[in-house]
Design goal:
With about 400 residues, the chain is of the alpha+beta class. The chain has five helices and 25 strands.
Length: about 400
């Protein structure tokens, strides 16, 4: 069987290559409707749902669906008898040969060497994992104390699940942020969850036994963890305000980094003086950063005339200014971001340490620094719990707005 799969994808690769060379030929287009995609990785099938529609002149619109999340991609195109789907703000893409009601090709991370994972899709399959699952024999709705374990050790997380019949949605909270929108199903006492946002592909399988869960986690091309969980409505993570802080002797932060025009910018510049400043440490490759950027962009447009500034320090997958600029401009356009972006270098943590040596430790993208009108650091928030976390996100928004009103009013 494995040999047949290898032969199939070698043949598919040849077909795609030929199609790219013959851009004058376009076969019958894929049919509009709901599709079920599969990322074939680590011996597993990682499913996700998407919708294909057409605008005028046969422009394909692809919408990735993860539970309540819908990510629309408007820049898809046809190359011969293949469809090319760039993963919105991320430097990744799907390219697949299509025929009838099926697609077959690859998910590729363009910035990473040899990162190509087989992909397939079928029209009309609207389920996530199982077309006819067995009735759910357990209900996992609630809060769980979770431990992920691999060769590097064991890490705590909080599992948040909502179940309605066989349908399950939820996420995992980590100190670095959440696992965004997960969607899946129960099949008897077996749980399956997945998400695909264009940059990250996550797959969870588990068996539930009373108030205990035991399973496997697969991510991308190489990662495999085991995970266990115990129902615990009181579980919580470390305070995100206590993980990253200024080294002894520091009250302020400083940096001098190029903006998107190549000009050096720093907090000593006139536009920041006497204002409340938010520093967003992020990367365009980071899905949690995407969620935070969307939130900050909307907030800034409503409050930018109130004596506040936001400056984002971007650390990208390549230490290349022109590459970083192209990724940042794409993100700015998608979310209509009107605040300042600076380039800090590669996403390797040595670059964040070099740019911001006054921090005790850098743990996670994103990390957000709040500075008052006198230039003093008042708070540093590690990670970001996005909309997929439900009430956790609502609490963050309330705390953010309250704290910003306090700083603006001083």
């Amino acid at each position: 069987m494995l040999q047949k799969v290898i032969i199939l994808f070698v043949f598919t690769s040849w077909l795609i290559s030929c199609a790219q060379k013959n851009t004058d030929y376009v076969s019958d287009l894929p049919v509009e409707g709901e599709w079920r995609g599969i990322i074939h990785t680590l011996g597993q099938e990682l499913p996700f749902n998407f919708k294909l529609e057409y605008q005028l002149e046969q422009q394909p619109i692809v919408t990735l669906i993860n539970g309540e999340e819908n990510i629309q991609i408007t820049e898809a195109s046809f190359r011969g008898d293949s469809i090319y789907i760039p993963m919105h703000i991320f430097d990744a893409s799907i390219i697949a040969y299509y025929q009838g009601n099926s697609m077959i090709g690859y998910w590729v991370k363009n910035y990473a060497k040899d990162y190509k994972i087989p992909f397939s899709a079928n029209l009309g399959e609207t389920y996530r994992f199982f077309e006819s699952p067995a009735p759910a024999s357990v209900d996992i709705t609630g809060k769980w104390e979770v431990y992920f374990e691999n060769k590097s050790g064991k890490n705590l997380a909080v599992g948040l699940f909502q179940q309605n019949g066989n349908k399950v949605t939820g996420t995992f909270l980590r100190p670095s942020g959440d696992y965004r929108f997960l969607a899946g199903q129960m099949n008897g006492n077996a749980l399956s969850l997945s998400t695909f946002d264009g940059e990250h592909a996550y797959l969870f399988h588990a068996i539930i036994d009373g108030d205990q869960i035991k399973g496997d986690f697969f991510s991308g091309k190489t990662r495999h963890d085991t995970w266990t969980a115990t129902r615990n409505e009181d579980i919580s993570l470390a305070d995100p305000l206590a993980l990253t802080f200024l080294k002894e002797g520091y009250e302020t932060v400083g940096f001098s980094l190029p903006d998107m025009n190549g000009n050096l910018d720093s907090l000593s510049n006139l536009k920041y003086r006497g204002k409340v400043v938010i520093i967003q440490i992020f990367g365009t490759w980071c899905p949690n950063c995407m969620d935070e950027t969307k939130f900050l962009s909307e907030w800034y447009k409503k409050n930018k005339d109130r004596g506040v500034e936001i400056v984002a320090l971007a650390f990208e997958r390549k230490n290349d200014f022109e590459y970083a600029k192209s990724r940042i401009e794409k993100l700015k356009k998608r979310f209509d971001v009107q605040y300042t972006f600076l380039f800090g270098g590669s996403s390797d943590k040595e670059f964040t340490s070099k740019a911001l040596p006054m921090l005790n430790n850098f743990i996670s993208f994103p990390t957000t620094i709040f500075i008052d009108k006198e230039g003093k650091v008042r708070k540093i928030h590690t990670g970001f719990s996005g909309p997929g976390t439900g009430t956790y996100y609502d609490e963050f928004v309330d705390d953010f707005n309250s704290f910003m009103e306090e700083l603006i009013g001083e």
